[in-house]
Structure formats: structure tokens, C-alpha cells
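Q: My labmate handed me this sequence with no annotations at all. I'd like to see what the chain might look like in three dimensions before we decide whether it's worth expressing. Could you predict it?
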Amino acid sequence: MTTTMATTALADMSAPVLFKAACPDCRGRFELASDAFRLAIGASSRTTFYSFTCPDCRRAVRKPAGERIIELLTGGGVRTLRLHTG
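A: Here is what I predict for the chain of 86 residues:
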């Protein structure tokens, strides 16, 4: 996923937020709405990732999520799961 987020209409805040993403398997590039993503935040960078299903090849994609990606996804309304640390 790139760190750029497609714009939503400012007058219509109910418009879905779109994110640019890419599949590492089929190399497809596309835009997905925030409800197509899941974000898991764990205790380390290894357990913090986002995932989605590629609309082209239908494979599950899982990629690491750094601070900037977390900020973009949570700001765009992506459903977030906080993993237990204890």
C-alpha cells in the first residue's frame, strides 16, 4: 500500500475513504475502501500488520504496518484489532 490516501469529498463526510494498494502475488494495483482492510497492532513491528484480499487474484495479502501506515489506516476508519501483549 502506498502512503497516499485518496481524498474524500469534504462536503460529504459519509463518502468512503479509498486507499491505494498493490498485491505482491499478481502485481495488481487498485484502490480499496477502508472496510476492505484489517489492521492488527501488536507489541512489536513483527506483530503489527494490515491485511486485505486482492480483488484481482483473491489471495489474502498481509503487509507490515509502520507508524505512518497505522496513522493513515486508523484515520481512514479501518477496523483495528489490538493484540494482547501480556
